[in-house]
Amino acid sequence: MRLLRWATLPAAGLMAAVGLVSVQGGSAEAASSFTFPNGPSSPNCGSTVYKADGSAWQCTFDDEFNASRIDTTKWVVPTSFLTGDGSSIYSCTPNDSRVESESSGALHLTAMTVATPVKCNSTLAATNWIAGSVTTAGHFSQTYGRFEARIRAQAGVTGGFNENFWLFPDDRYTVWNWPATGEIDPSQQFSWFPNDTYPEAHYGDGTQVLGTTYQRCAAQRGVWNTYDLIWTATSLTFQVNGQTCFVNTSADPAFTKPFWINLTDGLWLADATTKGPATMDVDYVRVWK
Questions:
Q1: In angstroms, what CA-CA distances link 10 with 25, 79, 86, 171, 283?
Q2: pLDDT tens-digit readout, 230-251
Q3: pLDDT tens, 87-122?
Q4: Average pLDDT in the 119-137 region?
């Protein structure tokens, strides 16, 4: 599944097609793990998680979303992120990401219509759709490790909504040239397909091949699902609720540099029948190395 995105991120100089985010131009130097100086310290990912060889994963990033507001040492809230294909309905993110209290805390990203059209891109017309997104750009990025998020996509909404947990290259280390420079999507959910998620790896010329670059995995809307990416130098393993559903063994050079984390709610193949609002809830995001 190809998800088209355009974006500009305040204070991060962001602009990309089919992807998000830029912090600043950077070297091509690779790193096994990188945390920005102003990033989170002493993360706590809960109970110890073990690798297949029996050794323990080391927690490097964690947000349980238990606070009343976004933790700005971990996340940036974009104010002009776009999703859609530009030729049909698309959504714009002027600032609609929020954290609200639940029993355990959760981040809520909502796609909805507004009465006054919003313009987020000089080349596209204003839109009545707005949507929420957050990114760790400028705060945290990492090469290899385990990336996990527990997410619930709203059930019972009409087609055209798209919820994503995805990774994009840190431009301190990568000069973007999508798709050759890579994108990793541990989860892509679409309201057109309410029982599925589509993990995907973008690289090379971007050719999509079922079972090679992406897979269709069971993940119902309206319930909590846990998505894991286990990223090594030789493979990308995607798990849904603890079960492996897809492994990419391309070992493409794109996947040798730090990527940051993005959570976005928006539109995909939306049309006049698409009715909102629709909310993507995130219970937590955890990363280990």
A1: 15, 7, 21, 15, 26
A2: 999 999 999 999 999 999 999 9
A3: 567 888 776 555 565 556 899 999 999 899 888 877
A4: 86
Q: Where are the domains of the chain?
A: 27-73+136-288
Structure token digits, residue 50: 């073990």
The answer to whether 283 and 153 are in contact (CB under 8 A) is no
Confidence of residue 219 (pLDDT cuts 50, 70, 90): very high
Alpha-carbon torsion, ordered 261, 259, 213, 263, to 10 deg? 10
Reported residue count of the chain is: 289
Instruction: Round to whole Å and give the CA distance between 278 and 256.
Output: 35
Mean pLDDT, residues 257-273: 93
Measured between alpha carbons, how far is 31 from 181 in angstroms, rounded to an integer? 15
Give residue 150's region: left, alpha or beta (phi > 0; psi -120 to 50).
Answer: beta
Instruction: Classify residue 22 by burial, with Cβ atoms within 10 Å: 0-12, 13-18, 19+.
Output: buried
Dist. CA 149–CA 50, nearest whole Å: 17
Sign, CA torsion 227/20/201/91: positive
> Which has the closest alpha carbon to 233: 22, 28, 19, 31?
31
CATH class of 27-73+136-288: mainly beta
3-class state of residue 63 by DSSP: strand
Plot region of 87 (φ>0 → left; ψ -120 to 50 → alpha; else → beta): alpha
Residues 285/148, Cβ–Cβ less than 8 Å:
yes
